[in-house]
Design a protein that fits this description.
Elements: H1 3-6, H2 19-23, E1 40-45, E2 51-52, E3 55-57, H3 59-63, E4 67-72, H4 73-76, E5 106-107, E6 113-119, H5 122-129, E7 133-137, H6 142-151, E8 157-159
Antiparallel strand pairs: 1-6, 2-5, 3-7, 4-6, 7-8
Amino acid sequence: MTATETGLLVGTSVLRREDGPLLTGQGTYVDNIQLPGTVHLVVVRSPYAHARIRSVDLDAARAAEGVVAAFSGADLRDDWKAPMPCAWPVTPEMKNPEHFPLAVSEACFQGDGVAVVLATTRALAKDAAELVAVEVPRPRTNRSSRMSRTSGSSRRTASMQRSPPLIRR
C-alpha cells in the first residue's frame, strides 16, 4: 500500500514538476524577465531624518548613459493630486500632515525618498542615482548645536552620496 492509496502525504516525498528546471539552472524568475520597453527605477534616499532639502541637482544623472528620466519631489509635486492618505485615522480629529511619495522640501525620516532615476537597466539606474547631488544642512548634534552658536558652523552643508556600508566585527 502506498502513501497516496491511504491518503497520507505528511512526511512523504512529493514529486514537483518545477524542481528539475530550478535545480539545473533552467528556471525562470520574474527578475530575469525583460519585456520590451521596461525601465528600472532607483530611489535616492535621505541618509538623515528631518533634513531640509536645499537643492536637488539631477543634471549629471540625466546625462548618464541609459537614463530615461530623473525626477525630484519638487519636479513631481504639481503632478500629484493630493498627499497620500493615512491608512488608519485613529480618531476623527487626528491631524494628518501632508506626505508625498517623494520628499519635496524636507525628508521626514532616514530613508525617505528624495529623487528617482529611471534607466534601461538596473545597473545603469543605480549608477545614475549615485550622481544625484542633494544639498541638505548638516544635521546638528548636541555638541555641534553648541558650536553653531559661537562659531557659525550651522552654515556647513553635507551632500547625500552613498557611502560604503559599515561592517561591524
